[in-house]
Specification:
heterodimer; A: mainly alpha; 10 helices; 77% helix; B: alpha/beta; Rossmann fold; three-stranded antiparallel beta sheet; 26% strand
Chain lengths: 265, 238
């Protein structure tokens, strides 16, 4: 009985801490970028517009496997943006929150959780803005399978969180790991299908790219937008689910062994 | 009741292990306030950090049945880019106050005590060290703990602030006790803090008379027996 009430108490503290950190994280995120919230939302939208113009003039503004080019690029860039912001910036979340470990109840785990919620909120808003804008101009919702889109979004957030925990530990224990993470992440943008479809690639290339769960999530989201979107047989939902769970489990395991090192540096 | 058993803390520096302290044993009764004395770098702040739960010993453990604050003083848990009121709002939230009214009350308490004018709504990084001290101590008034850890709060700040601190400590002392790092005899005497610990050479010496503790501490630090008379005159005149 005592253990149950202890768990309840601990959970209450953790939720309080995450709510506090969420407030702080949103505040600093907004005050850091020029034009505040508008700037945060505009940054990924700007990237999508650039890709739209690049691809549009290169190959025309036709749909990709029946999926409109705008939605095609948005789903890719938003899912990748969420992944990138949560996992890669996890090391920053230690550095920028270090002063807050002064309160013994604030743990590195909570800082990454709060940051993940902020990113989920920001990229979710971008999704909403683009979809609403699309509806406004074209008068049509492109949403064949909303649950699939939401689940992919959630899974990629969880996967990024798990990977973020691993990167956080690695980057804090070994400084050179931060450089290595940066080097690995740079080409990942071009390998994740943000601006291409796996089905459109030559057959020999596909197995080299399909291992990437981010690419899997992006392709599945596109399928969620349009049922007619051509999904490569190498893409499967169960692969995404499995890799998410494995990475999350691994992240929690590594984190739990290293919490004190992160907290005291 | 805080019970400390065999507390050892060390750092590794250039491959060599350097001990801050070894096998500390002491206990503090409920409602008992103590002061911690010692020279620069003997580990007073480290000890406070360990008691506050934000640093961890190599071995040994701490038993406690009371709530202990984070150390108030030189270092602090303020985010440099945020204003004081934003920082207070954040701390209120992590300690479970989410309603606007509750947060507003806490901000007002800290604002009143810190008394730093419109700096309160400017980023923390623009503050002078005196202002930082004011804010840090002001925060202690807004949150209730059984034991407060105070790390040289009196060292900074002008005379007006020190007077305010004394008043505040009197108020807090009605319900809580202190573990305080200070060498200010007058302050200790006024607040009836009789128990003192000297940290020296990785060990801890316990005193029941704070005057004797201060005297011995000065002796240890100056390695000079003559300093005894200087100290007593200087501090009693204050």
């Amino acid at each position: 009985m005592t253990s149950f009430s202890q768990i309840k108490k601990g959970l209450k503290i953790q939720i309080d801490v995450i709510r506090g950190l969420y407030y702080r994280e949103l505040l600093t995120r907004i005050s850091k970028v020029r034009f505040g919230l508008f700037g945060i939302l505009f940054e990924p939208i700007g990237l999508i517009i650039i890709w739209l113009l690049l691809l549009g003039f290169r190959r025309g503004f036709e749909p990709v496997f029946t999926l409109d080019l705008i939605i095609f690029l948005s789903s890719g860039n938003i899912v990748y943006g969420l992944f990138n912001s949560i996992s890669r910036r996890s090391v920053d979340s230690i550095n920028s929150n270090y002063a807050l470990f002064y309160y013994s109840r604030v743990k590195p785990f909570d800082t990454l959780t709060a940051r993940s919620f902020v990113e989920i909120y920001i990229y979710g808003s971008i999704y909403l803005i683009i979809m609403s804008g699309y509806y406004y101009f074209k008068n049509i919702w492109v949403l064949d399978n909303l649950p699939l889109i939401l689940i992919c979004y959630l899974f990629i957030a969880i996967l990024s969180f798990g990977l973020g925990l691993i990167i956080m530990v690695a980057g804090s224990r070994y400084l050179f790991m931060r450089e290595i993470v940066n080097i690995i992440f740079r080409p990942l943008y071009f390998l994740s299908g943000t601006f291409f479809s796996l089905a459109a690639l030559p057959q020999w290339l596909k197995p080299w790219l399909s291992w990437n769960p981010v690419l899997q999530a992006i392709e599945l989201s596109r399928k969620g937008f349009s049922d007619l979107y051509l999904l490569d047989p190498l893409i499967s939902f169960s692969y995404l689910a499995k890799s998410t769970l494995i990475i999350l489990f691994l992240g929690l395991l590594i984190y739990s062994k290293n919490e004190r090192i992160l907290q005291t540096k | 009741m805080i019970e400390v058993k065999n507390l050892t803390k060390s750092y590794s520096h250039n491959g060599k292990r350097k001990y801050v302290f070894k096998n500390l044993n002491f206990s503090i009764k409920d409602g008992e306030s103590v002061c911690v004395l010692g020279g620069n770098g003997v580990g007073k702040s480290t000890l406070l950090r360990i008691l506050g739960g934000i640093d961890f010993p190599d071995s040994g453990y701490i038993n406690k049945n009371c709530s202990i604050s984070w150390p108030f003083g030189v270092a602090s848990g303020f985010q440099a880019g945020l204003t004081a009121s934003e920082n207070v709002k954040f701390v209120s939230k992590i300690f479970g106050t989410h309603s606007n009214k509750g947060i507003e009350e806490k901000i007002e308490i800290v604002r009143d005590f810190a008394d730093i004018g419109d700096y309160f709504d400017r980023p923390y990084k623009t503050y002078s060290s005196g202002m930082k001290g004011r804010l840090s101590f002001g925060l202690s008034l807004a949150f209730k703990f059984d034991v407060y850890l105070l790390d040289e709060v009196l060292a900074r700040g002008d005379i007006g602030f020190r007077e305010k601190c004394k008043q505040a400590v009197k108020e807090l002392k009605q319900f809580s006790s202190f573990i305080i790092v200070t060498h200010n005899y007058e302050f200790l005497k006024n607040n009836n803090i009789e128990k003192g610990f000297i940290l020296h050479d990785q060990k801890m010496i316990e005193y029941d008379d704070v005057y004797l503790a201060l005297k011995d501490c000065n002796k240890l630090l100056t390695k000079n027996n003559d300093s005894e008379s200087d100290f007593s005159q200087e501090n009693l005149e204050e």
